[in-house]
Amino acid sequence: MIKGKFIDNLPKVYGIYTGGFIAFIIIMAILEQAGVSAKAIGISFVIFTVAIYAVIGWLSRTLQMDAYYVAGRQVPTVFNGMATAADWMSGASFVAMAGGIYFKGYGYMALLVGWTGGYVLVASLLAPYLRKFGCYTVPDFVGTRYGGNAARLSAVLVLTVASFTYVTAQINATGTIASVALDIPFKLAVYVGLASILLCSMLGGMRAVTWTQVAQYIVLIIAYLLPVFWISSKMGAGFFPHLMLGDEVARIAELEGQFGFVKNSAADLATVPKGLAGITKAHSSVNGTTWGFISLTICMMAGTASLPHVMMRYFTTPSVKSARRSVAWSLLFIFILYSTAPMLATLSKLSLIDPTLSTGIIGKSIADVQALDWYQNWNQANLMFVSDFNGNGTLELNEFFMGGKAVVLATPEIAGLPYVISGLVAAGGMAAAMSTADGLVLAIANALSHDLYYKIIDPKAEAAKRLIVARVLLVLIGFAGATIAAMGIQGILGSVIWAFDFAMSGLFFPLVLGVWWKRANGPGAVAGMLLGLGSGMAYLIWVRNGGSGFWGITQLTFGIVGSLVSLVSMVVVTLMTEAPDAKTQAMVDEVRIPSGKTVLGKQH
Amino acid sequence: MSKQSQHWEKTRGLLFVTLAIWFVFSIGIFFFGTEMQASSFKPFGYPLSYYMTCQGSLLSFVILIFWFAGRQEKIDEEFGYTEREDS
């Protein structure tokens, strides 16, 4: 059926794969009608998709250095866009984002703007130049551009702190989904999730991760869009929700006015299980301060441009031109999901709070709501809770509580869609969390194996030995991440936002100035990275321990402090020390031209 | 001025234009959140502030990057810095 090289047949291969996946959904739907239990369907979805990723991971195994580190630099533009989108959209985007919009409205949408706007910075400031450089990892660029082990080591440090914070959140998300879908305890599910992640990445490194990420993008986008379009049509809201929910958004505002946002007493709130939230903020109107919105947007944008697992995806394209175009495609694929999240939040909220809809629960008697099948399921999973605070026997808006994850995971069930859709959504969430975790674990392991082990500790190591070290590190980092995830210290979304702030604090200016400011030198960059990361972290610890903070900067936006310190210290130290030598300056000139050989050789 | 510095000058010019547009849609307009909400211009029936956060700005970034990539390719071509297909 398929002849010739794999790369030439990509559209065909993934076309067949998509068709096969849709056929699988249909078979599951038929089995559900035939009476197969919901649980069996949920398990089949997760196992089937993970098994496919594992097969792709196995087929992509490699013993070649540039295949392991940069997928042989032959990933076509559009497919790299898809892989980046999966790499980028994590458990937070898939499972938590719609929930955040649902509960926090406008103030939260700063994340949507920030997580897309950052790609403009990636495309214009960094990606094409780093591709021309020809590095394997982000510290590889820093180490060569600024020269010396101190710069390389500082970059490894920032990368590890940011990516590790991020990866625990993703392993946490895979664990959550695996535990719900497979019905096993969370602490065990975390390691099941880890095993699936390692299956995809261990044998083939970047090459395996690339081709599984494309497969994961297809699963996650189908799983996200299908229920939203379905619910929208079912509710009669319109067949194309993105353009047709104007009335529904207005209706929510009307209902909010009617119900009002009643504030619960502290004693009442204490009875609500931890992690659940009620609807306390307006859905569509501006509900936060201007600076709160803009500062969060800035942090997410600069963080996007500094996160190494995203940047390294653009090292895999065949040319500088395709790296640039690939950023545009990535963002298009991301846009498809991000623009759907607010629509899901709108439909989900309206179907619960509108008393004129059959699915509405506000205004019904508490006993009726507690008798609902789906309420009992999700209440048991600790994701939903109602309580009659005012004792009138009727459910009020302020008496209904839900976990953020439930908006994506439970809405299909609440809206009365068949269970097969819930199974599909679980598979999609798993794909989203796994693809990001893969990219992150690989980014850390590659930095440690290439930059720390090969470039600093043992520059004479042979290829085979380097690849073994890379794999051993991959497993160790995965286990460390899973162990911390199993402790469940910080929520999924909180850790993700911290990761952006860490990356921005330490890496944003050293990376950007490395390309755009020829005068920037090694001592300046080291100062920028270490002082930036240090001050950002210090601010976070200070605010976490009751510090008052300044300029309205919170624990979610501490990257502003870190990156400003980083910029100032980098410029000051650079100007106080000698300009980089002629060789380095020539290297920067070379990076700025797309044509010609990469700065670093093919094998290095 | 050498060919290379002319190329870089044009590239930098394009960067400034790109970043200016980016600034408007990512930061600039959100200084006017409440004004946008009150605006009588409602794309597809959504309040303008809501529309920009969930589609408008996002879409403008997608278009901006495609446009930027096209412009940069033209600049590279003009100075003969286009890569050969096989490289």
Provide tags for this entry.
heterodimer, A: 604 residues, mainly alpha, 26 helices, 71% helix, B: 87 residues, 3 helices, 0% strand
Describe this structure in words.
- The complex is a heterodimer of chains A (604) and B (87).
- Chain A has 26 helices and 3 strands.
- Chain A is mostly helical.
- In chain A, strands 1-3-2 form a 3-stranded antiparallel sheet.
- The two termini of chain B are 28 Å apart.
- The longest helix of chain B is centred in the C-terminal third of the chain and has 31 residues, at 48-78.
- Chains A and B meet through helix 6, helix 11, helix 12, helix 14 and helix 16 of A and helix 1, helix 2 and helix 3 of B.
Please provide the count of β strands of chain B: 0
Q: What is the tally of helical segments of chain B?
A: 3
Taking all Cα atoms into account, the compactness measure Rg of chain B is 18 Å
Return the structural class of chain A: mainly alpha
**Shape field of chain B:** elongated
Strand order of the largest sheet of chain A: 1-3-2
Oligomer: heterodimer
Total count of strands of chain A: 3
H/E series of chain B: HHH
The unreliable regions of chain A are none
Helical content of chain A stands at: over 70%
